[in-house]
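Chapter summary example: a protein plus S-adenosyl-L-homocysteine.
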Amino acid sequence: MPSRIFVNSENSWQSGEGILLSKDQKHYLQKVLRLRDSDPIEVVNKTTKQVFLANLVDTQSSASLLSEIKTPTTPGKLNLIFAFCKSDKNEIIIEKCTELGVDNFIIYQAKHSIAQLNENKIERLEKIAEAASCQSKRNSIPRILTAKNQSELKELMTEFANTESLSLIASLEAIKVPVPNNLINYPTMNVAVGPEGDFTSEEYQLFQELGFLPISLGQNILRAETAAIASIAYLNIQKSQCLAE
Ligand code: SAH
């Protein structure tokens, strides 16, 4: 199966067009994937989300579009709100949860977050999200948004958590509810996971006010990254099973 790359383009693509590739992409195709001219590749238009089968040309500095690949789009959005963790944990969460189908990551600077959010760290996470999207053959790269405090989180949540969405929080507090089994009914699903030191009771209260339902991820206490991956894997599988029925 050909490898997939994402390309910035303002315009809609047609078969027969040539697409210029960046230096980094050329390097990746040549040195990492060891591809040569006329080898097949899949290119995704970041703007229009079109996916094309293409051939590499001009010593891999461009791709010639052959035919459009029509891929089914999964309905609904899956969003993960997670507390900013120590560096490699954020990377694990972004990589694995991109593979598992998250559409929007909202990284929250929680009271108990050990590390401090900054632009450089986000840029690195964006690169990881793009690489994981190529690897898992997604048609789009998830967005990474940040909330530096509770009021920014509240503001962002007005876009994501509304009456049409199902919002869940992985909770270590005493009161929990069962995860609803009719996930297909919700066009948007949000799940929030706390930091290594857990959410404070004030933060749990805020999520409750935003309409998040507290759920358990099992009897054992999971690390933050395990909790994020486990909850997203669960929702992704449930959603695909609802769709298959
Ligand atoms: N240091 C804390 C654990 C924090 S775990 C302690 O030892 O108590 C980090 C986050 O993962 C939590 O904030 C929660 O959102 C989630 N989490 C971990 N295990 C969980 C479980 N069994 N059920 C629900 N959420 C869980």
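Key point: Residues 170-172, 193-194, 196-199, 216-218, 220-222, 224, 227 surround S-adenosyl-L-homocysteine (CB under 6 Å).
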